[in-house]
Design a protein that fits this description.
99 residues; mainly alpha; 5 helices; 2 strands; 41% helix; flat
Length: 99
């Protein structure tokens, strides 16, 4: 289960020798994401991944990233993000403070 975006930290700027690297990375909207393991098993190179279900709130990782960097003034989307059960509590708390 996808749970949250994987956002860069200050070390990315150090690695590339650019203080603005994190900002540029976030502007690209090409963040990764973290998974939660729901059922233990094995996944190998070349295996097919299949979408089994989608949360009723219809929020994407890209939406969460946009809200995090405050690129969207969208109170309705912020509210839906606070209702997203797969999102860790720390993220939901962050968005609740935006409401």
């Amino acid at each position: 289960m996808v749970t949250q975006p994987r956002l860069p930290c200050y070390k990315l700027g150090i690695r590339f020798g650019r203080a603005d690297m994190v900002k540029q990375f976030l502007a690209s909207r090409r963040t990764g994401f973290y998974f939660r393991v729901l059922q233990e098993g094995e996944v190998g190179a070349g295996d097919t991944l299949e979408l089994v279900s989608r949360d009723d709130n219809n929020i994407t990782v890209a939406n969460i990233t946009q809200l995090y960097v405050r690129e969207q003034d969208n109170p309705e989307l912020v509210h839906r993000a606070t209702q997203l059960e797969a999102l860790p509590a720390s993220w939901r708390d962050y968005f609740q403070r935006m409401e």
